[in-house]
């Protein structure tokens, strides 16, 4: 299929290794193929050079191959720009990480990832009303303490609200991750691993949260391949 | 995306980049050769996100800074 020592671009690792691949062209218009180890496969395509430009088009190409794979297989999506030097290295990685890969695939079977960002307006700790103008040391310190108190209160508000939103949804998910205040405006950034046949229920739960919190902005995307729940780093033997 | 819930293209692109550049199976070691470029794009994305006040601004910024232009000049 290719020069076996050539550079390979990795899209995903999947189960159902024996099912024929049914995906469109990958990077550089080259068709991906599967490198099989037992019942799992690494889906790769040859790269003319050991470099992938991070363009929007390439990002979507990567994604479209992974999504096509999802139609018939359980998929551990690879990070964009994952390049391996030759088929032997890929095979060695599949062999070395086989148990972890199979366990991770089992967790993802029949499930998809949904993404949620929640924006809020309460994006700064309230200004201390009395800024000292002729700041004596004492006034300065008091102002700093007040600033810190307001900042703590603001973070606590954010943490409580984010946790409330997140917990409601996490109950309906097989797994989830969340982060609070990645930026002052970004109250919640979360990912949920949801059974495919529970998508409608999950969307309804998001809709209901949206109705309960009309001043928050909900950005809800998916279903995605389970990037946030593919928790494997392949260690490649040097040599 | 085939079954998109929220199909605002730029917001979805940010969500896609956030996933494919920082999550998923990756390789430890020095075999990944394109990492420098990808990191730079992600830094660009973070700046984009942290400077975003409204979704509308997020869209506008994404349109003004296509990913393809965020590469390092050599």
Report on the structure:
The complex is a heterodimer of chains A (239) and B (74). Chain A is an alpha+beta fold and 239 residues long. Chain A has two domains: 7-109; 112-227, ACT domain (Alpha-Beta Plaits, 2-Layer Sandwich). Chain A is built from five helices and ten strands, in the order βββαββααβαββαββ. In chain A, strands 1, 2, 3, 4 and 5 form a five-stranded antiparallel β-sheet that branches. The longest helix of chain A is centred in the middle third of the chain and has 34 residues, at 137-170. Chain A starts with 6 loop residues before the first strand and ends with a strand. The model of chain A has no long low-confidence stretch (mean pLDDT 90). Chain B has helices spanning 9-22, 35-50, 55-64, and one strand spanning 26-28. Chain B has one domain (9-69). Chain B is globular. Helices cover 54% and strands 4% of the residues of chain B. With 74 residues, chain B is mostly helical. The chains are: A alpha+beta (239), B mainly alpha (74). At the A-B interface, strand 1, helix 1, strand 5, strand 6 and strand 9 of A face helix 1, strand 1 and helix 2 of B.
Give a short overview.
Chain A is of the alpha+beta class. Chain A has helices at residues 56-70, 87-96, 98-108, 137-170, 199-212; strands spanning 7-14, 33-37, 40-46, 75-77, 83-85, 111-119, 175-183, 186-195, 217-224, 233-235.
How do the strands and helices of this protein lay out in sequence?
The complex is a heterodimer of chains A (239) and B (74).
Chain A: E1 7-14, E2 33-37, E3 40-46, H1 56-70, E4 75-77, E5 83-85, H2 87-96, H3 98-108, E6 111-119, H4 137-170, E7 175-183, E8 186-195, H5 199-212, E9 217-224, E10 233-235
Antiparallel strand pairs in A: 1-3, 1-4, 1-5, 2-3, 6-8, 6-9, 7-8
Chain B: H1 9-22, E1 26-28, H2 35-50, H3 55-64
């Amino acid at each position: 299929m290719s020069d076996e020592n050539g550079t390979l671009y990795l899209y995903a690792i999947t189960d159902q290794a024996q099912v024929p691949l049914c995906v469109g062209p990958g990077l550089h218009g080259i068709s991906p193929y599967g490198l099989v180890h037992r019942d799992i496969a690494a889906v790769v395509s040859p790269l003319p050079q050991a470099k992938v430009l991070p363009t929007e088009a390439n990002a979507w190409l990567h994604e479209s191959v992974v999504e096509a794979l999802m139609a018939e297989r359980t998929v551990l999506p690879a990070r964009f720009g994952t390049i391996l030097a030759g088929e032997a290295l890929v095979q060695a990685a599949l062999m070395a990480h086989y148990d972890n890969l199979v366990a991770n695939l089992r967790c993802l079977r029949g499930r998809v990832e949904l993404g949620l960002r929640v924006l809020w307006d309460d994006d700064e700790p309230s200004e201390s009303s009395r800024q000292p103008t002729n700041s004596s040391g004492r006034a300065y310190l008091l102002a700093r303490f007040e600033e810190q108190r307001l900042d703590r209160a603001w973070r606590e508000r954010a943490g409580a609200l984010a946790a409330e939103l997140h917990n409601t949804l996490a109950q309906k998910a097989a797994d989830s991750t969340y982060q609070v205040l990645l930026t002052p405006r970004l109250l919640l950034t979360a990912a949920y691993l949801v059974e495919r046949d529970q998508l409608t229920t999950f969307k309804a739960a998001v809709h209901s949260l949206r109705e309960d919190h009309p001043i928050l902005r909900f950005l809800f995307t998916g279903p995605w391949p389970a990037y946030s729940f593919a928790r494997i780093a392949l260690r490649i033997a040097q040599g | 995306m085939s079954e998109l819930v929220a199909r605002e293209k730029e917001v979805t692109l940010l969500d896609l980049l956030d996933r494919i550049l920082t999550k998923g199976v990756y390789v430890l070691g020095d075999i990944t050769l394109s990492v420098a470029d990808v990191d730079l794009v992600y830094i660009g994305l973070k700046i984009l996100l942290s400077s975003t006040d409204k979704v509308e601004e997020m869209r506008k910024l994404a349109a003004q800074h296509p990913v393809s232009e965020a590469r390092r000049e050599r």
